[in-house]
Design goal:
Residues 48-85, 111-138 form a coiled coil. It comes from Penstemon davidsonii. Belongs to the prefoldin subunit beta family. By secondary structure, the chain is mainly alpha-helical. It contains 3 helices and 2 strands. It has helices at residues 18-30, 39-81, 100-143; strands spanning 86-91, 94-99. It has a two-stranded antiparallel sheet with strand order 1-2. Helix 2 (39-81) runs antiparallel to helix 3 (100-143).
Length: 152
């Protein structure tokens, strides 16, 4: 890598997104590009990598929250169909016998909490996608074809 492509890191720890930087610089060197990478550019690349990792985590969390919501909805529907007064209800790893009305209340509360959590996760994902779009604009404007921020 030509000297103009090297960045001396003042940070002792390298991040997984540093791979993105090295790959970017190797591509830049291969294409003959002579774009100087500043410390700020490196920070933007690292931030993009961290946000990308968080998006993947959020997608998993959103999927889990949706599944939990569906399970609670199914449980609520089953509870409507039952004609038993006392229901076995799992709390943690223990089953307890509770009145039907109390189980209905608990399931409704759990559905509310899960729905609110799902909404927060979706909002966070949208916010992160907006940040990533801004970083893409900045990085593609400077590095053009020398950088690849798209997933393969």
């Amino acid at each position: 890598i030509p000297i103009s492509h090297r960045v001396v890191s003042k940070q002792p720890n390298t991040k997984p997104s540093d791979f993105l930087y090295r790959r970017t610089m190797q591509q830049g060197a291969a294409s003959g590009s002579d774009v100087e990478v500043t410390w700020e550019d490196q920070q933007n690349i690292n931030k993009f990598g961290r946000l990308n990792n968080r998006i993947h985590d959020l997608e998993d969390e959103i999927k889990t929250a949706k599944e939990k919501n569906e399970s609670l909805e199914d449980a609520s529907n089953e509870l409507i169909l039952t004609d038993e007064e006392i229901i076995r209800f799992q709390i943690g790893e223990v089953f307890v016998h509770l009145p039907n009305e109390e189980v209905e209340t608990r399931i409704e509360q759990m559905k509310e909490v899960t729905s609110k959590n799902l909404e927060k996760l979706i909002e966070e994902k949208e916010s992160i996608l907006a940040q990533m779009a801004e970083l893409k604009k900045i990085l593609y404007a400077k590095f053009k074809d020398s950088i690849n921020l798209e997933e393969d």
